[in-house]
Amino acid sequence: MKTDIEIAREAEPKTIDKIADQLGIGEEYLERYGKYKSKVDLSINDEKLKDSKNGKLILVTAISPTPAGEGKTTTSVGLVDGLCHIGKNAMICLREPSLGPCFGMKGGAAGGGHAQVIPMTDINLHFTGDFHAIGAAHNLLSALIDNHIHWDNQLDIDPRRITWKRVVDMNDRSLRDITCGLGGVGNGIPRQSGYDITVASEIMAVFCLASDIDDLKKRIGNMVIGYSRSNEPIRAKQLNADGAITALLKDAFQPNLVQTLENNPAFIHGGPFANIAHGCNSVVSTKLALKLADYVVTEAGFGADLGAEKFFDIKCRKSGLKPDAVVLVATTKALKMHGGIAKDNLGGENVDAVTKGCKNLERHIENITKFGVPVIVAINDYVTDTKDEHAAIINYCKEIGVECRISSHWEKGGKGASDLAEEVVKIADSNSSEFKPLYDNKMSLWDKTEYIAKNIYGASEIIADKKVRNQFKKLEDDGFGEYPICMAKTQYSFSTDPLLMGAPTGHDVPIREVRLSAGAEFIVVVCGEIMTMPGLPRIPAAEGIDVDDEGLIQGLF
Question: In this structure, are 286 and 405 located in the same domain?
C-alpha cells in the first residue's frame, strides 16, 4: 500500500470552480487560493440561499483514542465519498490541522489511505493562512494590553490578574511560563505570563462559534482579558481592540472549499482543540454546507466524551444546530488496547480482548443516547483485521441494540464505505433524532461540571481546592453563571489518568484551574495534568519531513 502522501499526489483533482459548481456556487462567490482551494464569500447566504432547506447533519465521533489509532477523520471523508458513491448529494466539514501536532506526534489531519481531502500538503501546512491570522489577532490584543499598561493604564488593569496570554501554532513547552517586560522602563511592565497553542486561543473559539462578521466582532469585544485592581473584569472592547482584530480576521472568516480524493466537496475551516477547547469546525461553514448539500458530515475531536459532548453542549447549544445521526468509529486494534493488550502485541487475532474493549465502545454509545441522537457504530477496517474480530464487535453492538457496519474506505475509498453510507442515510432520514443538551443553562457552574463528570466520565465526584471553588463563585457573581462548560482533560481516558483505559468508574476528577471565555460564552475547566501548550515528543514527526530534489514535500502523514 502506498503512503498517504503518495496516494494524495497521484490524485486527479478538479479545479476548484468545478467543485464549487457541484454545489451551485457561482464564480462570483469564490476567492481562489490557487487552482484547488478557495474561500467562499458568505454573502451567498443572503443573496442565494436564504430560502434553501437544510440538509441532514451527521456527526462522526470515536471511542477513546489510543496510540493504535481510530481514523475518525479518515472515516468522515470515507463516509462522504460513500454517500456520493450511492448517489447522494453530500459534503464534509472538517477542522483545519494545527502545525503543532503535525510536526509533533499526531501528524496531519487530512484523512488517510484512499479517504483523504486534498491538496493534502497545503491543508496540513499553511493552507489559506487562517491560523496565522488568528495568531496575529490574538497577539495584537496581547500587545495592546501591555501597551495600555505602559501608557498610564487608564483602565487600572492589574498586571497580576491578566488572564490573556500569547499564542503560537507550535508545540513548544519552553513557552508555557514566561516573564515579559524585562530590560528597563522602555520595555513595559515586567510580569509573568505564558503562551498557549493557537488552537487553544479564545479567538479560535470565537471564530468558530460566531454566526456572522457582526457576531464575531461582538464576541471579540466581550472577551475578558483580565481584571482591574478592584477585581472587575476588563473586556477587549474597553481597549478599543475589537475593530482591528475583526479586520485581521475578515478574510479568514470565509469558509475554505477543497475536495476529497474522489472530487467531492469539503469545507475545512477553523480548528479548536478538543481536549483544551471545544473541538469543532466553524459554525458558518457547517450552516453554509447544510444549505448546499442534502447530507453534511462533520466531526468532533478525539473521543465522544470530549468532542461529541462539546459539539452537543457548546456548538449545537450556541448555534441552534440539531444533528440527525451520530457515527461512532472504532477499530479492532484500539478496542484490543482498551481490552488490556499492549501496543506491541496488537498484531495477532484476539477476540477476547476486542470483546473486553467493547466496554469503552458501549460507554460512548450510552453517552450519545443521553443527547437523544441515534447512533451507528462504524468499524474502520484494517487489512490485518479478522472476520472473528469484526463479528465480535457486530454481535456486541447487536446485543445492546445498535447497528454496526464495516467500512473499508481506507483501502477502497467511497465504494468501501457504501454499506455504512446506506445505513447512515436510513437513520438520518428516519427523523428519529430528539436532540437535547445534557444539562440546563440554569444549573450552577459547579453542578454542570459535576454533571458532566458523573454522567459522561463515570466519575464519583469532582474535587477542587478552595481557590478553584472561589473561581466558580466569582464567575457566577460576575454574571457568567449560565455559560456551558468546556472540559479540558486528557483524551485518552474517561478519567484524568491517560493510562486508565476501558470504561473506568468511581474515579475522581481533580480540577486544577477555571478559565473564562466570555466571547465564546463558555467556561473552560482544566482537569488533571492537561496542558494548553503541548510539548513535542522525544522523536517529533518534524524529523521525518523534508523537501526532495524535485521540490516535493515528503514525510507528511
Answer: yes
Among the candidates 405, 429, 453, a domain finishes at 429
Cell numbers for 192: 509573568
The total number of residues shown for the chain amounts to 557
Going 14 to 20 to 24 to 27, the CA torsion angle's sign is negative
CB of 300 closer than 8 Å to CB of 307: yes
Q: How confident is the model at residue 360 (pLDDT cuts 50, 70, 90)?
A: very high
Is pLDDT above 90 for 334?
A: yes
Q: For residue range 407-444, what is the model confidence (pLDDT) as tens digits? A: 999 999 999 999 999 999 999 999 999 999 999 999 99
Domain co-membership, 272 together with 397? yes
CA 84 to chain centre: 24
Same domain, 184 and 45: no
C-beta neighbour count of 27 within 10 angstroms: 10
How far is the C-alpha of 171 from the C-alpha of 190, rounded, in Å? 25
Computed over every residue of the chain, the mean pLDDT equals 95
What does each C-alpha distance from 470 to 89, 464, 466, 473, 519 come to in angstroms?
51, 10, 6, 5, 22
The single-letter code of the amino acid at 53 is K
* φ and ψ of 394, to 5 deg: -60, -45
Cell numbers found for residue 232: 472587575
Residues 342 and 311 in one domain: yes
262 and 343 in a single domain? The answer is yes
Determine contact, residues 72/329, Cβ cutoff 8 Å.
Answer: yes
Distances (CA, A) of 72 to 61, 66, 192: 6, 12, 39
Q: Is the pTM of this model over 0.85?
A: yes
Predicted confidence (pLDDT) at residue 478 exceeds the cutoff of 90? yes
Q: Are residues 417 and 494 in the same domain?
A: no
Q: Which structural domain, as residue segments, surrounds residue 470? A: 445-527
